[in-house]
Amino acid sequence: MARYANRSLALAYTGLVLTPLFWAGNAVVARGVVDSIPPVSLAFWRWVIALLLLLPLALPKVRKEWSVVRDHWPRVLVLALFSVASFNTLLYLAATTTTAINIALINSTIPIMVALLAFLLLGERTRPAQAIGIAVALTGVLMVIAQGTLGRLLSLSLSPGDLVMVAAVISWGIFSVLLRRLSIPLSAMTFLTLQIALGTALLTPVYLIDLLLISGGFTLSGSTLPPLIYVAVFPGILAYAFWNHGVWNVGPARAAIFMYLVPVFAAVLAWVFLDERLGWYHLAGGALILVGLYLTTRNAPAPQTNR
């Protein structure tokens, strides 16, 4: 039993490291297609593709657990509203009216938002070491975003997109906390598939309104299909599966700290794929984030195994 718990915990932390890597790639891809794929279309079709990829594997499990699905789908619907339907849609919308640096800065407050909501809704208190870890990691994030210059932070200005990104952060915080609070006895595959299916259903009327009255959609081509497949598989299916497993095993507040890795991974990916310069502040900020992660995750409790 102890061996299983340790292995599950190791998998949880591995997944929580890969999740921000995939989401950093999501941000890079989103910036690259902002002129060719409308944000709502990008959000909608990523989940349609993800669902089509999952269904052949998931349908047997869904049928087997149908009685449980029937009893618990309203809870999953609530979770899908704040995750699949809202978070990335809001993030993509924010990217149209604000800068990437502002999005990264606001996105980095997710751990604080989750910790606050976990305390208010679940009564989870932050240990002194965790509080120090949050502060150290946040310092690292700010160093990366500010590029080592205080004036860069002070010169940031708010825009409508910033407010939309704040809404995205709140949405993800609510989802992470409710994921732990709403005990849903479904297998990981069934839960993820149901989450994506219900979230896509919620997003459909928004997509149709955008398609018919606002953006007009996009043209599927050799340049638009690959990014859609990427955001469906990596930041879509895999990242959500890893996040769900991580939150369930280590708790929402501790899992959220890994969001601090997003701007670090984004900086590295931008350096590799966009030829942007990797500065000393990326390395120093990354080191501080790793220290913060160590402080917040050491002596982690044994994982839950009843799901």
TrEMBL record:
Membrane topology: Multi-pass membrane protein
Cell compartments where the protein resides: Membrane
Keywords from the named record: Membrane, Transmembrane, Transmembrane helix
Record field: transmembrane: 43-60, 72-94, 100-122, 129-150, 162-179, 191-213, 225-243, 255-274, 280-297
EamA domain boundaries: 13-145, 160-297
Tagged with keyword Flavoprotein: no
Source organism, top-level taxon: Bacteria
Family: Belongs to the EamA transporter family.
Protein name, as recorded: DMT family transporter
Organism per entry: Marinobacter lacisalsi
